[in-house]
Design brief:
Phage tail proteins - horseshoe like beta roll fold, 3 domains, three-stranded mixed sheet, flat, Phage tail protein beta-alpha-beta fold, mainly beta, 13-stranded mixed sheet, 375 residues
């Protein structure tokens, strides 16, 4: 389907998918995959469908097995496989064309968090289990989907004493895991890979550190490797959360402003905007001070990104696949916008002979904090 040093592999099937036939790959006209921090990933496959197409077997499979039709999409770039999506099909639609007699089959799906939102397990007890242990136990139920739990202990681990209280499951697994993450200022998501059929189920703080991806270059003649990249600065969007900590002796709540800087969320911009709004988080008064600060740091991180960059690139020209939830360098954008950025979202758009990506970059200020970025 693709050209150059890029190949696409599609695997579909119940629970343990198998590679589709060459005829199915040839009928595939477009693939779109979206991966973004703070939301579930999703995909859409579009096929050309005829009366003699082998895709009719896929339609029968979708009708018989139900919602657990697993789909794995792998792109091999320069000999290195990258798992772009490991999810389940949630909807399919056939659109006939009366004039040409050719129909289009559109298959839409979500990542594996969808299987965690299927059954309500309300009432299951978790005696003497902190939130971290509960999350690991919940994720273990989905080992058949290749989920590998990566649980980061919170700063303040609360181990409930069974004689005082026994936590119980509330709602569906995805709802409960997300609620536990929100209580300590964490995030939860399922990242496909690194090997096909495996997934990293991450429960922990949003990490904005690590080795950056090769730089995105603009206005650099032959070294330019993006098709477009535009930046905007919105200083009025920054919000400073104010948490309340209760004095144990006087019972008087003490307001504490929380900056958007932490070891896992260092400043990527040298000149941050002045906060234009203040969020009074009064619900933190009944929490432990460490818990209150953790919630404040998470809220500050979510609202600190004043600089946003949006653009698109051709994977063949860039030479690799840009990944979301990581850092990337920018060169050639001028002193105010050069430097490191957090990749907020990436949308893969794959068609015959073409592989492009739309992306969104964010950071918390102007002017780079580093003298140079990796090429």
């Amino acid at each position: 389907m693709l050209k150059g040093n890029i190949n696409l592999t599609l695997m579909i099937g119940p629970i343990v998918p198998a590679p589709v036939s060459k005829a199915v790959i040839e009928a595939l006209t477009s693939v779109e995959i979206r991966s973004a921090a703070g939301e579930a990933s999703g995909f859409q496959l579009t096929f050309a469908l005829s009366s003699k197409s082998p895709l009719n077997t896929l339609l029968l499979l979708l009708g018989q097995v139900g919602p657990v039709i697993r789909t794995i999409i792998i792109a091999t770039v320069n000999g290195t496989p990258h798992v772009l999506m490991d999810g389940v099909i949630v909807n399919h639609q056939v659109t006939p064309n009366v004039e040409t007699g050719q129909s289009m089959l559109t298959v839409t799906g979500s990542d594996l968090t969808a299987v965690m939102a299927a059954i309500d397990f309300t009432g299951i007890p978790y005696p003497a289990m902190p939130a971290e242990a509960r999350v690991a136990l919940i994720i273990a139920k989905y080992a058949v989907f290749g989920m590998i739990p990566t649980v980061i202990p919170s700063v303040f681990m609360d181990v409930p004493i069974p004689t005082e209280r026994i936590p119980t499951h509330q709602g569906k697994d995805l709802e409960y895991v997300n609620a536990l993450a929100e209580n300590v200022g964490y995030v939860f998501y399922v990242e496909p890979g690194p090997a096909p059929g495996t997934n990293i189920a991450y429960w922990g703080p949003e990490i904005k550190v690590g080795a950056p991806q090769p730089a995105l270059n603009i206005n650099m003649d032959a070294h330019t490797n993006v098709e477009s990249l535009n930046f905007s600065f919105n200083g009025a969007s920054k919000v400073m959360p104010i948490v309340y900590i209760q004095n144990e002796m006087t019972r008087v709540p003490i307001p504490i402003p929380i900056p958007d800087i932490s070891p896992l969320n260092p400043p990527l911009g040298l000149i941050p905007p002045i906060p234009a709004q203040f969020n009074m988080m009064r619900n933190t008064a009944n929490l432990n001070p460490i818990q209150a600060v953790a919630l404040g740091l998470a809220e500050a991180s979510r609202t600190s990104d004043a600089v946003t960059g949006t653009g698109s690139l051709d994977v063949l020209r860039y030479g690799r696949i840009l990944k979301a939830r990581g850092l990337v360098g920018v060169r050639g954008a001028g002193q105010a916008f050069n430097g490191l950025y957090f990749v907020k979202s990436v949308t893969h758009k794959i068609k015959a002979g073409e592989y492009k990506q739309d992306f969104t970059l964010t950071r918390n200020g102007l002017v780079s904090t580093v003298p140079k970025v990796p090429v």
